[in-house]
């Protein structure tokens, strides 16, 4: 099963709270970049990859996740979705 089909199947059971978590995660990455801008080049490389995942996950959630039903997206759900999306 392709990664997009696995993500779609999971998003169909999760309320759109995943959108809020993805946006919050993006904000955290921006703050970390600011805080460590002079000393953490390897961390930036990792974050550049993760930044590309957030917007895509938001779009997928908006198109797939139910508007008024489903369960809340837990930190574990979000981490697994993000990992699924970001890994080749």
Give an account of the 3D structure.
With 88 residues, the protein is mostly helical. The chain has one domain (3-86). Helix content is 73%, strand content 0%. The protein contains four helices and no strands. The protein has helices spanning 3-11, 17-35, 41-64, 75-86. The radius of gyration is 14 Å and the shape is globular.
Q: What attributes does this structure have?
A:
88 residues, 4 helices, 73% helix
What radius of gyration results from the CA coordinates?
14 Å
Q: Per DSSP, what share of the residues sits in E-state strands of 2 or more residues?
A: under 5%
Total helices: the number is: 4
Largest sheet: none
Percent of residues in helical segments?
Answer: over 70%
Counting structural domains, the number is: 1
Q: Give the termini separation.
A: 13 Å
Give the class from helix and strand content and strand pairing. Answer: mainly alpha
Low-pLDDT ranges: none
Number of β-strand runs:
0
Strand/helix succession: HHHH
Shape: globular
Draw up the topology in text.
Blueprint: H1 3-11, H2 17-35, H3 41-64, H4 75-86
Helix pairs in contact: 2-3, 3-4
């Amino acid at each position: 099963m392709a990664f997009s089909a696995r993500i779609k199947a999971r998003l169909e059971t999760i309320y759109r709270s995943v959108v809020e978590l993805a946006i919050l995660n993006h904000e955290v990455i921006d703050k970390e970049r600011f805080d460590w801008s002079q000393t953490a080049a390897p961390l930036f490389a990792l974050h550049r990859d993760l930044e590309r995942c957030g917007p895509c996950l938001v779009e997928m959630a908006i198109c797939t996740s139910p508007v008024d039903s489903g369960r809340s997206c837990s930190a574990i759900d979000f981490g697994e979705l993000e990992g699924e999306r970001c890994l080749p």
